[in-house]
Amino acid sequence: MEVVAELSVCTYTKATTRLHSSQLSISSTHLSYLRRRAFRPITRPRDARITCSVTSDQVQAPIAVQAEGPKTKNDCYGVFCLTYDLKAEEETKAWKKTINISVSGAAGMISNHLLFKLASGEVFGPDQPIALKLLGSERSFQALEGVAMELEDSLFPLLREVKIGINPYEVFQDAEWALLIGAKPRGPGMERAGLLDINGQIFAEQGKALNAVASPNVKVIVVGNPCNTNALICLKNAPKIPAKNFHALTRLDENRAKCQLALKAGVFYDKVSNMTIWGNHSTTQVPDFLNARINGLPVKEVIKDHKWLEEEFTEKVQKRGGVLIQKWGRSSAASTAVSIADAMKSLVTPTPKGDWFSSGVYTTGNPYGIAEDLVFSMPCRSKPCLRKFKRILQGDGDYELVKDVIFDDYLLKRINKTEAELLAEKRCVAHLTGEGVAFCDLPEDTMLPGEM
Ligand SMILES: NC(=O)C1=CN([C@@H]2O[C@H](COP(=O)(O)OP(=O)(O)OC[C@H]3O[C@@H](n4cnc5c(N)ncnc54)[C@H](OP(=O)(O)O)[C@@H]3O)[C@@H](O)[C@H]2O)C=CC1
Ligand SMILES: O=C([O-])CC(=O)C(=O)O
Question: Which residue ranges have their beta carbon within 6 Å of ligand 1?
């Protein structure tokens, strides 16, 4: 057994925490220098594993574990366990404190796109190191190792740590972002109530785990379907975490709606703004063409075919996921990953003046008269904050609901329908939200976007 007595990744993380206070920036030249010099790994057997433990005031020397020994499933992975020749003066003066991101369903298709976007710096920027903690299951553990191997081979300079595990209480430890993607897909012949129950149990357990071990201000984005009600279950099981920190992903629907409006108006899609998706990530969702704008003008002034807006456009967005499954034979993965990155970026960067984005968020206290205590997609703006020292305006992960939106009878009628669906879903999972006995009276036409 070889013992490596150099600084470990744990030590390094500690050092960066301390250095964070200096708040100096890092240039790309500096970054590549760091990769070449400061983080040059010490040679040791390819598969040897290092375990390291940190007490409050002491960092223990890492111990190399024999390559052929039994693997514990929540260890750091492969190259991310290596020690580095980290000289004091090279301790970068620059890196920001690592952001911990936990991802469930990490061996699934969406994650397979998303993890590489996160590790590339696309979401948090080119000077922000991240740690990825990946949650799988007994069923997916081997695939998860494959994912971690691909992350190793990608040599991302910003990726400081990768851990894989099957216990949410370990994988969610200190999470600042939790991206909850894993969920059982609805199979043939399965009742939607059955899906709500099976997946609801996953999200109840994960809510409890987040409550116990995540950062108290963790931002949670629920992607696994039915995502609104899963997010509600999750937040109800995590009373220590602010309810407004939980999001159900409806950004994919927003992006789809923008694309269809751009296509109809004959403009590039960056000209479409103020796009709200109201309600459930299901076929009752309401893409709001009343408040949306094209080139700064109300959509209805640009697209005069209002029948198209009310009928074709609305249904196209609601059923886009299903059409895609028919073509691809599987549900959207790449565009979903893009939309998760978009949703995160929207929370950590200032929303452009006058614009907003959609997210499924907690309704209690909403200004629109929507029933309280649901997770409902609504228009949001990030809360800008001034980053100390650098004087850069950025979002801090928080948001506020947009007040200046208008309603007409058509929009209200549609919002009522999606609200009724979410209230029915909520009754159906009462046993998982601590609200008594479940009673399932789901509307007949309740469907996920991917169901046709
Ligand atoms: N909100 C949105 O806009 C969208 C949401 N989705 C939803 O995202 C989720 C993930 O999609 P995708 O990555 O394509 O799916 P995959 O099937 O590729 O991966 C899903 C993962 O879920 C996990 N899972 C958890 N419980 C079960 C179970 N009981 N049976 C089977 N798998 C389970 C599996 O991982 P493990 O074994 O490690 O737990 C699996 O790797 C789905 O619920 C999908 O409907 C998809 C597109 C858009
Ligand atoms: O139903 C699914 O799994 C796919 C989905 O959510 C979508 O494409 O919007």
Answer: 105, 107-110, 136-137, 139-140, 181-185, 202, 223-225, 227, 249, 252, 281, 331-333, 336
